[in-house]
């Protein structure tokens, strides 16, 4: 089934509502995993999902977390984000075109909603390809990390 991408100003049902609409069997384990994924600008690694979901369901195994995340990705309801050197992150905003801004220091990832006019058309170099998405990654220091640094210092120096 193809999912149409929504414009940012349309109301996007959250992950749990979408899973219910699809008739996905929401066992308590699956529900807790889906719940911890949802939140503003949350892009958790599988380990973080396991740690947070485990606070609600201590018996939740890592294997269940990994299997469930893989299933959600295969369903197209969660996207894998690999914009840091660390572990893959899982993003519940799978139906909304958005970019990411990544902090070089703490690796925090936030969503960036691009005005549609700023999405670059594919250059001539990819003529002949059926380009289906354009991804923009902004990198820098998040406000917390930027204020931690003395004036003029360069990250990593
Ligand atoms: Zn930061
Ligand atoms: Zn995102």
What does it look like?
There is one protein chain. With 157 residues, this protein is of the alpha+beta class. It is 31% helix and 13% strand. It has 5 helices and 6 strands; from the N terminus they run H-H-E-H-H-E-E-E-E-E-H. Strands 1-3-2 form a 3-stranded antiparallel sheet. A 3-stranded mixed sheet has the order 5-4-6, with no helix packed on it. Strand 2 (79-81) and strand 3 form a beta hairpin. The longest helix is centred in the middle third of the chain and has 14 residues, at 62-75. The model has no long low-confidence stretch (mean pLDDT 83). Bound molecules: zinc ion (ZN) (2 copies). One zinc ion (ZN) binds next to helix 5.
Topology:
Elements (H helix, E strand, L loop, with lengths): L14 H8 L5 H10 L6 E2 H11 L5 H14 L3 E3 L7 E3 L7 E5 L5 E4 L24 E4 L2 H6 L9
Parallel strand pairs: 4-6
Antiparallel strand pairs: 1-3, 2-3, 4-5
N- to C-terminal distance: 49 Å
According to CATH, the fold-level topology of the largest domain is Arc Repressor Mutant, subunit A
Whole-number tally of structural domains: 2
Beta-strand content estimate: 5-15%
The CATH class of the largest domain turns out to be: Mainly Alpha
Largest sheet: 3 strands, antiparallel
Radius of gyration, taken over Cα atoms and rounded to an integer in Å: 18 Å
Please count the helical segments: 5
Uncertain stretches:
none
The helix-and-strand class reads alpha+beta
Name the helicity range: 25-40%
CATH homologous superfamily designation of the largest domain: Winged helix-like DNA-binding domain superfamily/Winged helix DNA-binding domain
Count the strands? 6
The spatial strand order of the largest sheet comes to 1-3-2
Ligand inventory: zinc ion
Q: What sequence of helices (H) and strands (E) makes up the elements?
A: HHEHHEEEEEH
Going by CATH, the architecture of the largest domain would be: Orthogonal Bundle
- How much is the average pLDDT? 83
């Amino acid at each position: 089934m193809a999912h149409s991408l929504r414009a940012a100003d349309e109301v996007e049902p959250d992950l749990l509502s979408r899973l219910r609409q699809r008739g996905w069997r929401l066992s308590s384990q699956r529900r807790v995993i889906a719940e911890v994924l949802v939140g503003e600008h949350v892009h958790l690694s599988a380990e973080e999902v396991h740690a947070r979901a485990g606070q609600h369901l201590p018996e939740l195994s890592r294997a269940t977390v990994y299997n469930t995340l893989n299933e959600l990705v295969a369903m197209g309801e969660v996207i894998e984000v690999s914009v840091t050197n660390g572990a893959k992150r899982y993003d519940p905003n799978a139906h909304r075109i958005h970019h990411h801004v990544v902090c070089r220091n703490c690796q925090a990832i936030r969503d960036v909603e691009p005005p549609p006019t700023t999405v670059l058309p594919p250059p001539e170099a990819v003529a002949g390809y059926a380009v289906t998405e354009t991804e923009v990654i902004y990198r820098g220091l998040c406000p917390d990390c930027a204020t931690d640094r003395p004036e003029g210092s360069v990250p990593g120096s």
